[in-house]
């Protein structure tokens, strides 16, 4: 299971670092995530930039090289970026929450400027930032030379296999491994609920595993259909806490009183299922002991958190563990924690040799963690002209990211209610922001329809943020809103300082419908690498399309055939428009583009059918 | 243990293969060619695609024994050492990847398509690649890359 207290502590320390980042005197706290986030070393004409961040396809390696090249006045090719090796790089937390652009890029620039006794170059002087520098990994990717954790082959390494029960919470009661242990070169490890084998090849390890007789106590997986009712009974109300990145309670005025006194009340609820990250690369690790020191190669987003979790699981000090992270073949928030690393390390300790464990697709679906499901309730009161006077938004289980509304409501309360987690759930690209935007942007659309007002103008009447108004208006012009004769919908938000609007068009198809056009306008402040930014926008939208239309994880999900991901034929024509504001510090954009796809499509679906899709996925 | 002889990227190879071994494992574990990727183990994602006698196959469900005496091309051998195949060049120019894990399989399938159909319509490109998953969602750029490769090949 994910050690939540460890994760929370880790992210709290990182947040403290965030608070101190602007201070004149940087504090040398011996804490995780509290170090100066970058180190720069010079060797002749080339520079080595060391960072704890990783590149998982979002372009971090290229972007950080651009930032350094800009300030040093050298070509991008003169910068070698060393990432995520705990022996070499500073611990600046993990690669999460879209922080590389707003935090690490400025840190690189300030550190170099400080060393040069200058200040970071101003946007009008930029030569490298703001340019679409080609991805520095491009050639390695197209030639197959790019190495992922599962590609590593070390000499003398055994293959490890973990034996799994048929239900997620089963406990191991008895083991007979005598026959497997008799095979030459086979190591069996049995420690509480952990049961695994290592052998010279995966083939031999599987053969040994088949000879082991294990009995587990039956522990049925909890039924998902009963969760909503359960959560309403057991959820814990949030308390105000602004010392956290995503406050669980965001209030203005008095929503309860305004709802009690308000008129034209509307209460709606929404459901967002559990979904899987399903990175194309399943997780893999090689663990090797040298006396009491452990080296682990894997492909994770947060090498120092992984190191802390390995050390805790094995009862050793973090200083005894060295973690090296290769580029993950897809992360999406799903590769933050130690799991396969701990399994490989336990096997390697018993076998006395390095052990490699590479999860199957079934293991990836069943034994990693999933994006939390969410139940959202929204209750509002409104004036006769449609203006919302009171807004209460409750999210059960999914989380607090994306709670603050981009709208100007005089009384509002947006709340994340904690619930006991029935499954191993954790981070995901934008996490609960997708749930919260789905609910909010659906409800506001229901309100517009109820007052017979155009959804675009109804939103604009509640928005004062000029940048958000600008993306909406630009999008409406490009899309030719309201798309005469077509079934169209839209959604907008402010996500991690970015402003976004999505417009969607749908058409009937067979017994259901299909999405026939998507358009996104986004303002992330300065566009530091427009081509890469558009790649992230496109990718986020297509991943969002999966969550909107098909994806739904259950404990029975075991294969890619049974878990519908977006394919070529699902992708409609997509138009992307960037509003590049050079003078505004760049916001991270790895997550934001995913959060509006579901509500924009659900709103278009309403225009098509007159029915509200309040439960995802829409094409269940 | 059976011995299998085959030609991989222009080189004759002779290697042991236990019964049931898949071509993907032979390439990765016996020959050290890790460009073909495991993704799903059931031929549902295309990451393991290689060319077998010029045709794209899902090597994770192709028994190694079925490649006996045949010719295999992996991403490492698509272009001569140090060079790029037009499809590789087009992927590079359009940045038709993010994490890159699906890219070798996509490129090999696209190269095979252009061998058979030098001027594919967009619908034919999508159809040829439909069995390939790009979880990062680079699909539109991949279609653009294949279109570009076809155009460049005609120009040459």
The span between the termini of chain B is 47 Å
CATH topology of the largest domain in chain B: Ubiquitin-like (UB roll)
Which protein chains are joined by the largest interface, and how many residues does each one contribute? A-B, 59 and 54 residues
Give the uncertain stretches of chain A in residue-range form.
Answer: 18-32
Summing up helix and strand content along with how strands pair, one would put the structural category of chain B as alpha+beta
The CATH architecture of the largest domain in chain B comes to: Roll
Number of domains of chain A: 3
The assembly state of the depicted protein chains is heterodimer
Q: From N to C, what is the helix and strand string of chain B?
A: EEHEEEHHHH
What's the rounded overall pLDDT mean of chain B? 96
The first-to-last residue Cα distance of chain A is: 29 Å
Query: What is the helix content of chain A?
Result: 25-40%
**CATH-level-4 superfamily name of the largest domain in chain A:** Aldehyde oxidase/xanthine dehydrogenase, molybdopterin binding domain
The number of distinct helices of chain A, counting runs of at least 4 residues, comes to: 16
Here the CATH topology of the largest domain in chain A equals: Aldehyde Oxidoreductase, domain 4
Let me know the average pLDDT of chain A.
94
Q: What's the short version?
A:
The complex is a heterodimer of chains A (620) and B (156). With 620 residues, chain A is an alpha+beta fold. Chain A is 30% helix and 23% strand.
Key words describing this protein structure:
heterodimer; A: 620 residues; alpha+beta; Aldehyde Oxidoreductase, domain 4; 3 domains; five-stranded mixed beta sheet; 23% strand; globular; B: 156 residues; Ubiquitin-like (UB roll); DNA polymerase, domain 1; 2 domains
Task: Provide an overview of this structure.
The complex is a heterodimer of chains A (620) and B (156). Chain A is an alpha+beta fold and 620 residues long. In chain A, strand 1 and strand 2 (46-51) form a beta hairpin. Chain A has helices spanning 4-20, 60-72, 100-116, 138-143, 178-182, 202-210, 227-234, 255-261, 303-314, 340-351, 361-367, 433-450, 455-460, 466-479, 530-549, 597-609; strands at 38-43, 46-51, 79-83, 158-162, 171-176, 187-191, 194-199, 213-217, 249-252, 266-272, 284-290, 293-298, 321-325, 355-358, 374-382, 388-396, 411-417, 487-495, 498-509, 512-523, 574-578. Chain A has 16 helices and 21 strands. Chain A folds into three domains: 4-146, 2-Layer Sandwich (Aldehyde Oxidoreductase, domain 4), CATH 3.30.365; 150-219 and 283-358, Aldehyde oxidase/xanthine dehydrogenase, molybdopterin binding domain (Aldehyde Oxidoreductase, domain 4, 2-Layer Sandwich); 235-275 and 370-609, Aldehyde Oxidoreductase, domain 4 (2-Layer Sandwich), CATH 3.30.365.10. Chain A has a seven-stranded mixed beta sheet, sandwiched between helices. Chain A has a five-stranded mixed beta sheet with strand order 9-17-16-15-10. Chain B has 156 residues and is an alpha+beta fold. Chain B folds into two domains: 2-77, Beta-grasp domain (Ubiquitin-like (UB roll), Roll); 86-155, DNA polymerase, domain 1 (Orthogonal Bundle), CATH 1.10.150. In chain B, 36% of the residues lie in helices and 16% in strands. Chain B is built from five helices and five strands. In chain B, strands 2-1-5-3-4 form a five-stranded mixed beta sheet, with helices on both faces. In chain B, a hairpin with a 2-residue loop joins strand 1 (2-8) and strand 2 (11-17). The longest helix of chain B is centred in the last third of the chain and has 17 residues, at 139-155. Chain B is globular. The mean pLDDT of chain B is 96. Chains A and B meet through helix 4 and helix 15 of A and helix 1, helix 2, helix 3, helix 4 and helix 5 of B.
